[in-house]
Amino acid sequence: MKHYMALVLICIGMFALVGCNGQPEKNDEQGNRQENNALAEISDFVEQHGLTENIDLLETFYIHQQKETSILRFRIDANPDSYLLHGWTMPESRFTWAVGDRSRVLFYRYDIEHDVEVEITCRSIASIENLSQITGVFVNDNSIGTFTPNHENFQHFTLTIPAQALRSGENIIEFRFTYTTKPSDIHPNSADSRHLAAAFQKISFQSKQQNVYAHEATQTIDFRQEAHPETFLLSGWQAPEKDRTWAMSRNSQVRFYTYPPPKNLSLKVVCVAIPSETHEKQIVRVHLNNTPIGTFTVNTNDFKEYTLKLPAQFLRFGENFLEFAFAYTSKVYRVIPDSKDNRNLSVAFRQIMFKNNSPTDTDNLTDGKVIIQRADSTISAIQSLPHLFELELDYVSMKGAAPRVRLLRDQQEAIEIELPPNEQTYRQSFQLDQPAMYKIQLITEGDSESYTRWKRVTAHVSSQNTGFQKAETRSFVRSSKPDILVYVVDTLRADHVGCYGYERNTTPNIDRFAQESAIFTNAYAADSWTKASAATIVSGLLPKHHETVTKKDKLPDRIVTLAEMLKENGYYTIGFTANGNFGNVFGFSQGFDEFRRFVDRQPVTLSIMSDVLNKSIIPFLQEYATVKDRKPLFLMIWTMDPHDPYTPDESVKNLFDIDQYEPINTYDEKFLWKIQAGILQPTSSQIEYIKTRYDQEVYFNDRTFGELLDTMKSVGLYDNAFILFTADHGEEFWDHGGVGHGRTLYNDQVKIPFIIKATQIPAGSYSRLVQHIDVYPTILDIIGGEEPYPLDGISLLHTPNPERTLFLEEDFDSNVLTASVNPEKKIIFNRQFHRPGVAEPVPAFEVFNFNDIDEQNNLGLNTLNDEFRFHELFFFINKENTLNFEHTEAEIPPELDEQLRDLGYVK
Question: Can you give the residue ranges of the Sulfatase N-terminal domain (predicted)?
Answer without folding.
Answer: 482-784
